[in-house]
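SEQUENCE-TO-STRUCTURE ENTRY
===========================

Backbone structure tokens: a row of integers, each naming the local backbone shape at its residue.

Task: work out the structure tokens from the sequence, keeping to the layout shown below.
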Amino acid sequence: MAEKITAIKGMNDVLPPQSAHWEWLEQQVRDVMARFAYRNIRTPIVEPTGLFVRSLGEVTDVVEKEMYSFEDKLNGEALTLRPENTAGVVRAVVENNMLYEGGKRLYYMGPMFRHERPQRGRYRQFHQIGAEALGFSGAHVDAELILLAHSLWQQLGVQDVRLEINSLGQPDERKAHREALIRHFEAHAELLDEDGKRRLHSNPLRILDTKNPAMKPVVESAPRLLDFLGEASLQAFETLQAILHSNGVAFTINPRLVRGLDYYNLTVFEFITESLGAQGTICAGGRYDGLIEQVGGKPAPGVGWAMGVERVLELLKEQNLLPGVPVPDAYAVIPDMASLPVAMQAIQQLRMAGVAVQMHASATAELGSFKSQFKKADGSGARYALVFGADEVAEGCVTVKSLRDGAGAQVKKPLAEIAQWANSLQSSD
């Protein structure tokens, strides 16, 4: 036998029946997005490396350590598997002149890739659902994005999710804060770990996001960005809070919330749960008014968020909110090979009428015994067994046997009336 090939560590197969939960979650998202008038966009998994270097920032962890980058053998172009999708969405919007007629509300679903040490909720191939509002300024649009995510939690029935918000202000305000941060951390350089020392002059704002408990005192005493905000930035932040309050959305202000990517300004936010331990951030985002210009478009504002699909599914599992695995409505029992043409014609009519029918099949050319087929029918979870025996086919009928009512009631139905039975079955659901 040939050596078995296995998946790359941290890049996982999604198999039935778990894949049904993915499909269900995706449908819930589509429903909520439609209510908010967001439209689907699908971008390539591979993008030019320069897109992420330019948009995310050269000194971010993602660009420095986590991207899967390679050289195209055909033309030597530097390419990268997308580590996130906001930059790709913005690239697509700019390239296709989508803002020519006004702003766009978009959403996406798909895989992202980062070099990670695989652990629960953190994988090398992971999946995100994201929403982006491009070409719209104003804190009311920031609030709309937060309300969109909040509505999804409500639709899913999720509990134990809290919202944290902050404002990063505008570039000049961040610059003044950055200089004050550097002075503060330089004065306490002996308290910084190696990562903090490395970031001190390249990206000091990221020191505030450290997970090292030993650095908590020096971070807590650092200058707060909120104290450097001008009147316009403060007004935008207050407007955001007022809208959230009016919609009954609870939140806390976290002045140390900075996010890990360089393109953010003004509003940033995270939805966090305590149910998943260290990987508690399940949705995060903010405003990125300079990003469209960074990737070559005319200056235009933008705001958005992304959520981790694996983490949301894990949270739904923890809270027993995942639906049951779908089962067929009926299982076709066909003990006689000669009955196959008639049986499959009837099965196809049922499927076209909206009835989910699983047809019996085996690993060999033989169909198997009547008893073994009924055992498979029962194990499938189907509500009914449809028996296409020689006698039934000779009479132009099918025997419909209930598998779930205990009594096992059965009745013969003329094949000519199978569509009517399908309609009655659908109306009883």
Summary: The first strand starts at residue 39 and ends at 40. The mean pLDDT is 90. The CA atoms of residues 9 and 99 lie 40 Å apart. The two ends are 49 Å apart (CA to CA).
